[in-house]
Amino acid sequence: PNVTYIESNGASHVIDVPLGENVMRGALYNNVDGIVGECGGGLSCATCHCYVDDAWADKVGTPTSQDEVDLLEGVSAERKPTSRLSCQIVMDASLDGLVVHLPESQY
Ligand code: FES
């Protein structure tokens, strides 16, 4: 399924992220700037912060664990209602076409 990553400078990248893979890795493996993913998806860094596009917010849903909620409180960029940790968004067929926006900085 395709994910469109839009960097804060407007650059966009359409990446085919395999089913079952998370949105953080899809960016990392394809050299998309704007996602760091320092902890490798272990829910301990918050450097994989992204903003789910408004059109996708309902489908992607809210944070899936209390750990994610807690980490989102510490993100360095502005936190928005659509903020998620991209390592916690796992691709399934229903997310084909997903659009995420990346913050200017992860630190
Ligand atoms: Fe560290 Fe997502 S990669 S919390």
TrEMBL record:
**Which residue numbers delimit the 2Fe-2S ferredoxin-type domain?**
1-106
Query: In the UniProt record, does the keyword Iron-sulfur occur?
Result: yes
UniProt keyword Transcription, yes or no: no
Q: What does the record give as cofactor?
A: [2Fe-2S] cluster
Q: Which UniProt keywords apply?
A: 2Fe-2S, Iron, Iron-sulfur, Metal-binding
The record ties this protein, via Gene3D superfamilies, to: 3.10.20.30
Please report a single Pfam family linked to this protein: Fer2
**PANTHER family reported for this sequence:** FERREDOXIN-2, MITOCHONDRIAL, FERREDOXIN/ADRENODOXIN
Of which family is this protein a member?
A: Belongs to the adrenodoxin/putidaredoxin family.
Q: Specify the protein name.
A: 2Fe-2S iron-sulfur cluster-binding protein
Look up and give the organism this protein is from.
Answer: Novosphingobium aquae
Classification of source organism: Bacteria, Pseudomonadati, Pseudomonadota, Alphaproteobacteria, Sphingomonadales
